[in-house]
Amino acid sequence: MRGAALALAVVALAHTLWNGVDEPGHALAFGALVTVGELARWGSPPEDREPAPLGAAGALAYALLGRSGGESTTHGVLQVVTVVVAAQLLASVPHLARGSGPGADRPARRVLAVAFAAACFQPPYNSGLSARWFGEGPYFALFLLVLLVLTALCDAVLGALTAPAPRRPFGPLLRDELRALCGIGSAVCATGAVMALGVAVAGLWALPVLCVPLLLTQVSFRRYAEVRTTYRQTIASLARSTEIAGHTPHGHARRVAGLAVAVGKELGLSGPGLTVLEYAALMHDIGQLSLVDPVPRGATAVLPVAEQRRIALLGGAVVRRTGVAAEVAVVVEQQADPYREQPPAARIIRVVNAYDDLCGEGAGRALHALEQLRLGTGRDYHPQVVEALAGVLARGGPTPLRAG
After folding, report:
1. 19-30: per-residue pLDDT in tens?
2. Distance (Å, rounded) from C-alpha 245 to C-alpha 250?
3. How far apart are CA 62 and CA 323, in angstroms?
4. Are 287 and 336 in contact (CB under 8 A)?
5. How many angstroms separate the CA atoms of 108 and 158, rounded?
6. What pTM was computed for the model?
7. pLDDT tens-place string over residues 198-227
């Protein structure tokens, strides 16, 4: 994909340099908008689905621009690619200077998705085919809507191909990308289309007016993300208290959380469900702080069921006092219940915790631990969760969680 984006960028730059820039004012205005949008992603968390929504919307708007102030535009697909590439290169300079560049995959994805939108819109519009087929009324709006859906699907496929977990099957990765379209993806598509239609009527003066709402939304979401990061770090610190007190081995909570999230994704969990799963996995052993006599190696999986349930209930009570969401406390409390009565998150934590207890940090015992889990599927562990764990382990395990 990087090679395709690079080849397209080289062809577009060479074509623009040879033939010159059509309507330099429009190219400069949209290029500046994309540059500002890319610069506005400064400090965004690396897991953000779209760290530069304003830049993405501006690039999409230029790809869908057919008129400006009532006059037809003359730029084509290759000039759209040239402007987007130049803007991304300019915006990457300060990021690279601070060592926080976005990498090559995200810019390549942006170039290919925008090129797809421009290739679907510019030739039929400039040749007059879209006017003959759809006119200027509701059918043209429907044409734009279909084009936006196809562009979003193209971007989702590219996102799945460049996901940071290449060992996961393509199907679950694509499903995650499609689910993300309901959030920031839909806002980017809608804003890009509105920008293009606004400029078509009011000219370039419409750009600053129409981009302000998305920019404010981006700033507000960034603040929310910072609060959420701080919240997660607090939970991770609480989870480490069992290690500091000597109740559990070093890194046990983070290993269980990382593997549980990977298994949850394998089983189709996403969004808030994965967040609850991660928080509950981090705090699943916090009930051991209430024990007078520590469990050897913190391995609760080898304890009698009644003792496991008692520790789980103690953990849930501790979680409720910390102010963490009630959903997390419920999962912690139910992690030792019969698996047929558990919610999916509790089933996953029970299996993953047992796996880590059985093999610890010794990779040589992994196969033995997995065999023990499979033998216990008739009574203690959900078979589907055990097989999902086996699939994650077969592909090399999860991506490590960020240090809290």
Report:
1. 888 888 899 999
2. 11
3. 47
4. no
5. 9
6. 0.69
7. 888 888 888 888 887 777 777 777 777 777
